[in-house]
């Protein structure tokens, strides 16, 4: 098979050595029975009650799966529950109120521990405050906070009163926030004055203010004072101080609102193939059951563990595996506000050591950075508390996988490489650490009950070793229910490609290419669509391109991903200017500034190459494949399909000058 970039990916490096889970791990694993795969298969979809049984239901469900309106599947449709109750109240009732729920590690070395009781109290007070501000069931509350405890508290307060939250990553821009609030018609915002970036106070509220100015609706805003005197701020109309609200509602409790399992728990915007971000809608029952189950079966979380997922709650990983999964399972979840190299490159290992972390979950981009910095940093600390390591967000190749296992995991920790997406809600492909052999470089088999396949253009399974498209051919509990306010786009983005609605045959298309081996292990290769994965963050090429072409003087832009030697992907932009406009430093700076303003600094191109024209097909389509090959220094394929083949040499020369 040939991928979007015209490259034949078949016959890429084989996976290599396999590792068995150590006996000591298997003995204590939450799931250790290899029969689980067959057991799920034999009893599908009822097998998923194993996941649902990890939750407490106000009204038990009779039906496991309703598929009348596929692909709008409804899991546990007649069951009723509350997510905050499942993450808080029930742990108090089972006598664990003094158990640590969140251990927060601040950027400036501050530390805060919330017991389940503390968290319960603060969530209730803030839920009461939100109600008083007028938040009703089903109102979307936007949360624009960095990694401070008030972020999960606000999420759980929303869940408690049945108000879906829409968390917008704090590093995104005012424009990005406004687009998301507008799309969700959100009239409530929780934000903060600012946060520390490498020791400096950074103003978050001014971004929130600018977003509000751009919106038509009135927005009631709660502001958390994170910086105190380091960044004084004034509250305007419709703005409320978080701590004052808490004082006003001190000691108040709010009964958890009993929700249908299919009611929306939250919305999460993610990049797609077109400019508009997609509001992925997650359910209360199916989502929570799936994240709880995978926290249990894949991350092997135990209530007595100290568990750390070093991601940001502003993305799905943090929703599922910092907040909902671990808290539903009643464990201690570590929440880290800072970066891995501040104040020094051993920062994470110091936190693991001091907290005796049992399970650690991070992204390949971080692992590659650790590897580059050197093994002396983890070696400075006692990491023997670690029992299991996880990876998520991008493919991890065998070298960093092995480095992670050897230098962080002491050579004998199992590593789970977990494949999933914002849309899948929870892990769908991974080894079960107490059951399966690990093959570095391959995520593993689909989890029990998950019907993931690698298929060709016609939807037929490919031979082992060949490359194809990654599909999921049966529904699963954590799946997105729809795209907010856009059922049509939900169908066209994910289902159209490989489904046959006439025969009611629905298959989900992930947008990824993959290979499968003889043992059914899946190696995910990357995206087929115009989405670039930068450090585990999905960015749509169209979004970035439109932020570039917005700049005065820019005629056209094309954005591609470039893989740098460390394995990370960078954004590479090709830009042509309007006639009479000289490309130069001024326009370059304006582009960087505008991309940062429209999306956020993460989307800012690392490399910007000016070219008089972009290479185009005769029908006028920009040849991204070619531009990607140029950026990656690869030999160029056939350029005869181009309308302007002469431009290629010029672009190569320009790239040469840049490099
Ligand atoms: C895309 C989803 C799931 C939380 C983080 C990102 C890539 C994710 C892996 C993995 C290879 C992976 C895929 C996927 N991806 N995990 N273990 N191996 N690729 O969530 O922003 O929705 O991105 O991330 O390309 O489609 P997301």
Automatic annotation (TrEMBL):
EC number: 6.2.1.1
Keywords tagged on the record: ATP-binding, Ligase, Nucleotide-binding
Entry-linked Gene3D superfamilies: 3.30.300.30, N-terminal domain of ligase-like (3.40.50.12780)
GO biological process, one term: acetyl-CoA biosynthetic process from acetate
A Pfam family the protein falls into: AMP-binding
InterPro entries, A to Z: Ac_CoA_lig, ACAS_N, AMP-bd_C, AMP-bd_C_sf, AMP-binding_CS, AMP-dep_synth/lig_dom, ANL_N_sf
Segments forming domain AMP-binding enzyme C-terminal: 543-621
SUPFAM superfamilies reported for this sequence: Acetyl-CoA synthetase-like
Residue span(s) of domain Acetyl-coenzyme A synthetase N-terminal: 36-87
A GO term for molecular function: ATP binding
Compositionally skewed regions (Basic and acidic residues) per UniProt: 1-11
Chain spans, region Disordered: 1-25
Domain spans labelled AMP-dependent synthetase/ligase: 96-476
PANTHER family in UniProt: ACETYL-COENZYME A SYNTHETASE (PTHR24095), ACETYL-COENZYME A SYNTHETASE 1 (PTHR24095:SF14)
Family that this chain belongs to: Belongs to the ATP-dependent AMP-binding enzyme family.
Identification of the protein by name: Acetate--CoA ligase
Organism per entry: Natrinema saccharevitans
